[in-house]
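Researcher: Here's a chain I'd like modeled. Treat it as a single chain, no partners, no ligands.
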Amino acid sequence: LAYLAGSGERQSRETLAALLWPDLDQRQARAALRRSLSELNKRLGQGWLAADRESVGLDQEADIWLDVAQFQQRLAGCQTHGHAPAEVCPACLEPLTEAADLYRADFLTGFTLPDCPEFDEWQFFQTEGLRQNLASALERLIRLHSARGDPAASLETAIAYARRWLALDPLHEPAQRQLMQLYAWDGQQAAALRQYQLCVQILADELGLAPAEETTSLYEQIRSGAFPARPSSAPSSAAQPAPAQKIIARRYTIADLKTDLLGQGGMGTVYRGTDRQTETPVAIKVLKAAVSAGDPDWVARFVREGEALRQLNHPNIVKLLAAEEKEGRHYLVMEYVAGGSLRQLLDEEGPLPVERVIEIGLDLADALTRAHRLQIIHRDLKPANVLLAADGTPRLTDFGLARMADRRRLTPTGAVLGTVDYLSPEVCNGQRSDERSDIWALGVLLYEMLSGERPFTADTPAATLAAILSRPPPDLKERRPETPAALADLIFRMLAKDPRQRLASVRL
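Model: Modeled as a single isolated chain. Structure tokens:
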């Protein structure tokens, strides 16, 4: 019931069964769904649910009051006043106040479904989206109530909203600065200075960082009594970015979608962004709108990539900083790796020194070991998905095709995903991949780093697939004589056609 109400749309029975009973097969899951719908009808009475053989939803004619829907309607009402979404006008005061009053607690606080990870994902993104909407509403209410010339303005009310805004994310420095400024305008200089000390403490404890220069500057102004005067009308937020910027997860920005473009793939686009709290660069991956609109499974893959990265805390795997769905767009914020990709390095330099190949290979093997221990299969290991830090250390990235244990399959049996040159024979045959498919791809990558050529590449994709399935790998010692015999033998074992004969693990 919560999912149907929260999503606001009819859902297929197949989707609901897979979401809520992931451990059951399709027949058992659909039977469990039928029992649950029957129980809901008994408890709620007729007229709440609209169901047919294929889908289920809430009856649109039913007299149902949803706090989430009311909250969103109040916010949407502010978009009809003829100004930019982030701006405010006197007419915004009533709907914003009502929206803030409606938000009593986070979405489904205290509720969870055991062993339903995809429901947990949905609940997480719903909660984060609503919290961000509340933060925006509170920030605009603060601006309205801090305007000196408005008879409805109240610094006391503005301070209460600022405290609530800060409680959503105590690490958000713009909220810290706003509360300091409001205390100062209200004549509470000691409270403003104390708030700065609290800001210093929490940033040090949680992030190991000092406050931003803007925060420190405001503190010095308040301490000296030279802080900015209270505005005579509702100001634009100092924390709002320039109109061309995008804000993700309340702290990451993309200044310019053209100049900050880092790369594009079939599923997403990656931009260079900035962490507003630390002023350090980040990488922001955005799911393409056409992809998300055309196939919901790609949205699920994108969400799954974020979940995989959240679990994979490893020095040779790109770190996830935040994940967000905002205005129908999906974002992943990751650490920025400045040294380019292994693909670029190979294109520029060709075969790498043996010692360098061994270093990169060991680091990637360690990263895959971490993933495989968590039952995560990468499925798209290739040089373009290996980034290099400034010191040359590799970072494995792009888990968009990763398969995780105990999840509904997103790829039909027999479908082929991944880059042809690095596909294992079993994947070429449409069989299920496992850790050994990643081991094959790592073997191809090691061979390429040593020889400068991929072992099975042919003139066409079809010919490449045929070579992978039938042709033995060329003798690596002939192409790179100085390759240690033990390394050449290891790569040969990684490239065994039969996965049962292949090196079973990269755990060293």
